[in-house]
Amino acid sequence: MDQFDVKVFPLLIFIRKNLIVTIHPKGVVRLQKIYRYADIFMKKIRQDLPWNDRLTILLTRIIDENNEKNFNGLRMIEEEGDELGKFMVKTDPDAPRTEIGNEIYK
């Protein structure tokens, strides 16, 4: 089943004075909110802060959005686990473990 497969997509973040560059696979939708609202977000960061503090604020936002995307994936896995639990409750309680194991594997 493809719905239980975990796919790993790397996110590389390079930081240098006044610059943050992110690199990830082309087909992966990631950091969509920060890309879409980057102008607004950057205007909200106080300009009187040192460059390293502004970079830290931006990096924190990037990591936060990436984590949010990861947790959405975990929620989907948890929901599928709940469905599997419901299936196991409905199956015959006297069924052999190997039969239940095969069903879980499927």
Task: Supply database-style keywords.
single chain, 106 residues, mainly alpha, two-stranded antiparallel sheet, 4 helices
Oligomer: single chain
Low-confidence stretches: none
Number of strands: 2
Q: Please describe the biggest sheet, giving its number of strands, its sense, and whether it closes into a barrel.
A: 2 strands, antiparallel
Range of helix content: 55-70%
- Shape annotation: elongated
Gyration radius over CA: 21 Å
Structural class: mainly alpha
How many helices? The count is 4
Query: Residue-averaged pLDDT, rounded?
Result: 79
Series of secondary-structure elements, N-terminal to C-terminal: EEHHHH
Reading side by side through the largest sheet, how are the strands ordered? 1-2
Q: Termini, distance in Å?
A: 7 Å
Beta-strand portion reads 5-15%
Walk me through this protein's architecture.
- Strand 1 and strand 2 (19-23) form a beta hairpin.
- The chain is elongated and about 70 Å long.
- The chain contains four helices and two strands; from the N terminus they run ββαααα.
- The termini are close together.
- The model has no long low-confidence stretch (mean pLDDT 79).
- The longest helix has 40 residues, at 51-90.
- Strands 1-2 form a two-stranded antiparallel sheet.
- With 106 residues, it is mainly alpha-helical.
